[in-house]
Automatic annotation (TrEMBL), chains A, B:
Name recorded for this polypeptide: Putative pterin-4-alpha-carbinolamine dehydratase
NCBIfam families: PRK00823.1-3 (NF002018)
GO molecular-function term, one example from the UniProt record: 4-alpha-hydroxytetrahydrobiopterin dehydratase activity
Pfam families registered for this protein in UniProt: Pterin_4a
Family (UniProt): Belongs to the pterin-4-alpha-carbinolamine dehydratase family.
SUPFAM superfamilies: PCD-like
Domain of life: Bacteria
PANTHER family: PTERIN-4-ALPHA-CARBINOLAMINE DEHYDRATASE
Alphabetized UniProt keyword annotations: Lyase
GO BP terms in the entry: tetrahydrobiopterin biosynthetic process
InterPro entries in alphabetical order: PCD_sf (IPR036428), Pterin_deHydtase (IPR001533)
Reaction equation(s) it catalyzes: (4aS,6R)-4a-hydroxy-L-erythro-5,6,7,8-tetrahydrobiopterin = (6R)-L-erythro-6,7-dihydrobiopterin + H2O
Record's keyword annotation contains rRNA processing: no
Species in which this protein is naturally found: Bosea vaviloviae
Length: 96, 96
């Protein structure tokens, strides 16, 4: 199981991520992605879904038309882990 | 533009849908779908997304692992329309 990040590691990871924020009252990070339209939003979600499945690490996310709100946390570890940072970075990379 | 359903038409439509409920404080219907795993959940979302795009009528939805929460409403009409009923029915049919 991935190791839960301590406060220092968590803050350091956040400085390397663009637009991701700590969720208040929860050990998780979140970001809102806005696309051109539904097609672009869901196309991105599909690419992320394939990756998430291969990592066996899945986002919590919601989609309304061209907007996708994502929250990442590692339930098994009870907090943030390197897996969340990796998935966040991949999500940003897929946006391009 | 599709016509907003009146209270009678809305209630009648609901009686023909399984597991869909009116959302409190909003003219919308909602349902929670639970699948076997993420793959099955996202596979279903993908099929729904293709249909939604072709209808030019999109759900509000959130996904956490094997669960998908869906809310349907027709923003342009300011309430529920036949489009929502049609999409809800199709979502149920795709589940099988």
């Amino acid at each position: 199981m991935p190791k839960r990040l301590g406060p220092d590691a968590r803050n350091e990871a956040l400085t390397t991520l663009t637009g991701w924020k700590l969720v208040e009252g929860r050990e998780a990070i979140a970001k809102r992605f806005v696309f051109r339209d539904f097609s672009e939003a869901f196309g991105w979600m599909t690419r992320v879904a394939l990756l998430a499945e291969s990592m066996n690490h899945h986002p919590e996310w919601s989609n309304v038309y061209r907007t996708v709100e994502v929250t990442l946390s590692t339930h098994d570890a009870g907090g943030l882990t390197e897996l969340d940072v990796k998935l966040a970075r991949a999500m940003d990379a897929i946006v391009g």
